[in-house]
Specification:
Layout: H1 29-32, H2 57-65, H3 68-84, H4 99-116, H5 126-155, H6 163-167, E1 171-176, H7 182-195, E2 199-203, E3 206-211, H8 218-235, E4 242-250, E5 254-256, E6 262-273, H9 281-284, E7 291-303, E8 310-319, E9 324-326, E10 329-350, E11 356-363, E12 372-375, E13 378-386, E14 389-392, E15 395-398, E16 407-413, E17 419-425, E18 438-458, H10 461-480, E19 484-491, E20 494-501, H11 505-516, E21 526-527
Antiparallel strand pairs: 1-20, 1-21, 2-3, 3-19, 4-18, 5-6, 6-7, 7-8, 9-10, 10-11, 10-18, 12-13, 13-16, 14-15, 16-17, 19-20
């Protein structure tokens, strides 16, 4: 059955229209039976795509996401899950090697369940990103489903409205007017409304006075701001877009900056202390040193495309509250550890003559296999390196990349070209193979200052700022202004007046009473109850 949407005024309305687009007369029986059409005026009674009776699959998806209830449900679900994710620490703040074991030992069954459900890294999960995206989609569809029909209705609204439309406004009045006073009353009404900053349109014996239409777009501008804000959140899932990490470097060490293509080199790390004469008397008696500043002379590097060479990008003397900053990447001074182990010094001794042949230094952060050290007339080549030495299944392994128990296999090449191998294991003294002329022993430690740098990058800040500003513009538009309209029409010796506002009805009523007094007419305004 095809729905008849043609109004008695002759205008053909789209299917689903509640109020005639041309004259405003109610078209649906349930609306005709109402005394007020305030609810229907929210979107001017226009047909919305989500309310079509015949729907394709796309229309059904559109109708689902256009529902305010769905949008609120998605927001509530996301908020609840976000709160649940804060019950226990997220994985990024857990320093334990085994994350699963940490949650189980610290929080028992609840912690284990928390980990198994993926809540320990919730904010990087695909389903959390999907929820954020669905909220954004819902905001877009909710807005388009309402703002497009509303814009068309307001842009094409007619001056002459059906009497039933005016009588069903929440505020309305009907006043008998003598035939010879009709024009004068309309002119005076038009003049008074103009004084209250209404924009006037006139068509014969009908008037449309309107002001503050722009405030109707406030909620939709809010939505734009929120959509931009949510887009900024989704950008955080791009690698390197949001970084909250940490890097430790001893002097001379180069490390890759986490989640970026850059490397940072610690050229020098120093701590400066106050001299006693620089301190107030109350602080001198303690006898301890008072730190004045921590400083790291850092260089930011980047690999040259197609090679292993690095070029300098920028350098900076990093101090507390004075970070190295480059294209949104920030390296902040966070920690200082003096005299940390950077390497070991090994000495070579001729076992026959008991004479020392010299020393060489193995720097842990600058180790490469088959690296050759020149010690006098000997060449020492590193064959194998195990930072955290252990034996498993009768084979040497390393338990981690940290030099907790370093072990080395060296080949010593003599001047005559002959070679011999030696094992060096931290904390253990192994007998050299029989026939070895030279022995390698620990001669000392290479110590250096270590710096701790926080790595921060938040490239979405400007997105949040733009979204926040747009959101506040929408809030201001919708909060401090109202869209007010007054329709007036003379028909059969009666002046009909209907008025509508999207909020603050008391102020509109008072304003209309002020409009009526100068023209010698005290309007007995009738206010329909909202249904």
């Amino acid at each position: 059955m095809v729905e008849n949407t043609k109004c008695e005024c002759g205008h053909n309305n789209p299917v689903g229209t509640i109020l005639c687009e041309y004259c405003g007369k109610p078209l649906q029986q349930e609306v005709i039976e109402k005394s007020s059409i305030e609810n229907e005026m929210r979107y001017e009674g226009a047909a919305r795509r989500s309310q079509q009776s015949v729907m394709s699959l796309f229309d059904r998806v559109w109708a689902f996401f256009s529902s305010v209830k769905v949008a609120i449900s998605l927001i509530v679900i996301t908020l609840v899950l976000s709160a649940v994710g804060t019950i226990f620490p997220q994985e990024e703040f857990v320093g334990a090697a085994s994350k699963e074991l940490f949650y189980q030992q610290e929080y028992g069954w609840w912690g284990s369940t928390f980990y198994q459900l993926g809540l320990s890294k919730m904010y990087s999960q695909w389903w959390f990103a999907s929820l954020i995206a669905m909220i954004g989609i819902s905001l877009v569809i909710c807005s388009l489903d309402r703002v497009v029909p509303l814009y068309k209705a307001l842009k094409g609204q007619k001056v002459i409205k059906n009497i039933e439309f005016m009588k069903r406004q929440r505020i309305h009045v009907a006043v008998e007017v003598a035939t010879d006073e009709e024009e004068a009353k309309l002119a005076e009404l038009e003049q008074q409304l103009s004084k209250h900053h209404y924009h006037i349109q006139r068509d014969g014996k009908a008037i449309l006075a309107e002001k503050g239409r722009f405030s109707r777009w406030g909620p939709y501008i809010n939505h734009i701001g929120l959509i931009i804000f949510l887009f900024g959140i989704l950008l955080r899932f791009i690698p390197g877009w949001n970084i909250d990490s940490f890097v430790n470097l001893v002097e001379g060490e180069i490390k890759r900056v986490p989640q970026t293509e850059y490397y940072v080199k610690n050229e020098k790390t120093v701590a400066e202390y106050y001299r006693p004469e620089e301190l107030p008397p109350a602080m001198r008696s303690g006898g301890g040193q008072v730190i004045k500043k921590y400083q790291t002379d850092a260089i930011l590097l980047k690999k040259v495309f197609g090679s292993n060479e690095m070029k300098e990008v920028t350098r900076h003397e990093i101090q507390v509250n004075d970070p190295l900053t480059y294209e949104g990447l920030n390296l902040l001074q966070s920690d200082f550890q003096p005299q940390q182990l950077r390497g070991i010094k090994l000495g070579i001794k001729d076992k026959n003559t008991k004479q020392s042949k010299g020393q060489f230094t193995v720097v842990f952060h600058d180790i490469s296999l088959h690296q050759v050290y020149q010690v006098g007339d000997l060449k020492v080549k590193m064959e194998e390196y195990y930072p955290d030495f252990a034996i498993e299944n009768q084979r040497p392994i390393t338990k981690s990349r940290e030099p907790n128990k370093p072990a080395f296999i060296f080949t010593i090449q003599k001047p005559d070209g002959k070679e011999e191998k030696s094992w060096v294991i931290s904390g253990e003294r192994l007998p050299d193979p029989e026939g070895n002329q030279y022995g390698i022993d620990l001669a000392g430690f290479d110590l250096a200052n270590q710096t701790g740098l926080m790595v921060r990058a938040e490239k979405s800040l400007w997105v949040y700022l733009v979204g926040g500003i747009i959101f506040m513009i929408g809030v201001t538009m919708g909060s401090y202004w109202q869209h007010r309209r007054v329709w007036a029409r003379v028909e059969d010796g009666v002046l009909y007046i209907g008025a509508h506002t999207n909020k603050n009805w008391f102020a509109l009523r008072r304003e209309l009473e002020m409009v009526g007094k100068p023209i010698g007419q005290v309007f007995g305004l009738v206010e329909n109850e909202k249904e």
